[in-house]
Amino acid sequence: MDTVDLLLHPVRLRIAYAMSGERTRTTAELCAALPDVPKTTVYRHVALLAEAGVLEVADEQRVRGAMERHYRLRRDRMTIAPEAGASMSLGDHRRGFAAAMAALLAEFDAYLDRPGADPFADSVGYRQGTLWLSPDEVTELIGEFRAALVSRAANGPAPGRRPHLMSTIFFPTGADGEPGPQPDR
Is residue 135 part of a domain? Predict the structure, then answer.
């Protein structure tokens, strides 16, 4: 399976989210973290990710006669190489966007279904807005986002920290020189 096909799947994306922060988890723990996904589906996708080297075995121990594996995410394998990204078809991009949105919706539903979920207290946000930017301003903005995210990307689990899922969606809304949607005045 090529990297694009491997990574652009909503269940595999959710497994990657659940493994973030240098955590190690067993497949049974992943099933508990993704209660809305059938166990057989989680096991199948963990096997695919492990076979592709996206998940690696961090530890093994015998439990009641069976071998229990603790997996760790290899973040360097969770990326689509620039040359593969450049060769993605429009259909690949549609499929990737749909997989990301399906995973995002499932994660948000799982959050809302947790006891004590409080979107206001948890500073949940889902805003959209239009920015008018030149190509140079787009490059500058992306660099600013990267710098802000890189400063926090190495954070791992620690007392007082909870994982937060962040998704960025960024694309032009009109052709060059064609005005996009106008803000309400």
Answer: no
Answer whether residue 177 is part of any domain: no
Q: What is the CATH number of the domain that holds 7?
A: 1.10.10.10
- Is there a domain that residue 184 lies in? no
Q: Which residues of 105-124 are buried (b: 16+ CB within 10 A; e: fewer)?
A: ebbeebeeeeeeeeeeeeee
Q: What is the DSSP string of 20-44?
A: TTT-EE-HHHHHHH-TTS-HHHHHH
**Per-residue pLDDT tens for 53-88?**
999 999 998 888 888 999 999 988 888 888 888 999
Q: Range of 61's domain?
A: 3-114
Helical residues (DSSP H) of 34-120, grouped into ranges: 39-51, 82-86, 90-113
| pTM metric for this prediction | 0.75
In a domain, 76, yes or no: yes
Top pLDDT among 120 and 63 is at: 120
Q: Over the stretch 159-173, which tens digit does the pLDDT of each residue have? A: 999 888 888 888 887
